[in-house]
Specification:
By secondary structure, the chain is an alpha/beta fold. It has six helices and five strands. The protein is globular and about 60 Å long.
């Protein structure tokens, strides 16, 4: 149960509820508020963005302010609200939605995971490959895909062809969205050039075959100061700043 913080003044307050862990980790059971009066909500942002990805997109291993790395549960350093996607959306005054799962890959997932992103991106509970998601409820203006860190170097033809199929599948759900394929901000000097080649080939294929609303973006450097080599909370801000500038160029926002 969430209690009212001590010391609040007798005036208007805004309460934000955000689940900082992934869909398969814990849950929020919202009962309601007990207050003097509920005021009308401010208008929702008109812009919408959805972020597909793995642990980086989920905000894994980034927040050590309360619990240090390798202490507590493995997900105790999750902080979805402060991860690069929500930060980017706040920079652009846009709604956000994270569709991400730690460990997932395009062809190969880590940690004995039995699913890959193309298999689960359209499900409610990603880790369980469960009930289908209702895409009509949220139609983003921009979609970003950040995948490949857990795959590592793969057969380039298979990787790119699978990526093309994933984009085509997402396009069926979001016919008007601009889709931006991102390199992994965690990638080291060996993986980074590999992912750049994959993304260049994938986006080139999509453009050549008629989808002119698919783009690529390569992050400027490796971000890895968090737990397990993930970006930390400060680096997520830098990643968001890079992505914000990219989306501004694509959308003219």
């Amino acid at each position: 149960m969430i209690k009212v913080p001590v010391g609040l003044t007798d005036t208007e307050h805004t309460i934000l509820i955000c689940k900082d862990t992934e869909s398969n980790i814990g849950y929020i059971d919202f009962i309601g508020f007990r207050c003097e009066q509920l005021l009308p909500l401010p208008p929702q942002p008109k812009r919408k963005i959805e972020y597909f990805g793995d642990s980086i997109t989920s905000g894994t291993g980034m927040d050590m302010l309360v619990i240090a790395c390798d202490k507590g549960q493995w997900y105790d350093q999750h902080n979805a609200y402060m991860s690069y996607g929500p930060r980017t959306s706040r920079n652009l005054n846009a709604e956000w939605q994270l569709t991400s799962l730690a460990g997932v890959g395009l062809l190969h997932s880590c940690c004995n995971m039995k699913v890959v992103l193309p298999q689960i991106y359209d499900k409610v509970l990603l880790a369980a490959d469960s009930i289908g998601w209702d895409f009509k409820a949220y139609q983003p203006d921009v979609v970003t895909i950040c995948i490949g860190q857990n795959d590592g170097p793969q057969d380039s033809t298979l990787f790119c062809s699978t990526y093309v199929k994933l984009i085509a599948s997402i396009r069926q759900h979001y016919p008007k969205a601009d889709i931006i394929c991102l390199s992994s901000p965690m990638a080291d000097a060996n993986l980074s050039p590999v992912l750049k080649r994959y993304l260049t080939g994938t986006v080139s294929y999509m453009t050549t075959h008629g989808d002119k609303k698919v783009y690529k973006y390569f992050f400027s450097r490796q971000y890895h100061n968090g737990c397990g080599g993930h970006p930390d909370i400060d680096e997520h801000k830098l990643i968001a700043d890079e992505l914000t500038a990219c989306i501004k160029r694509v959308k003219g926002w």
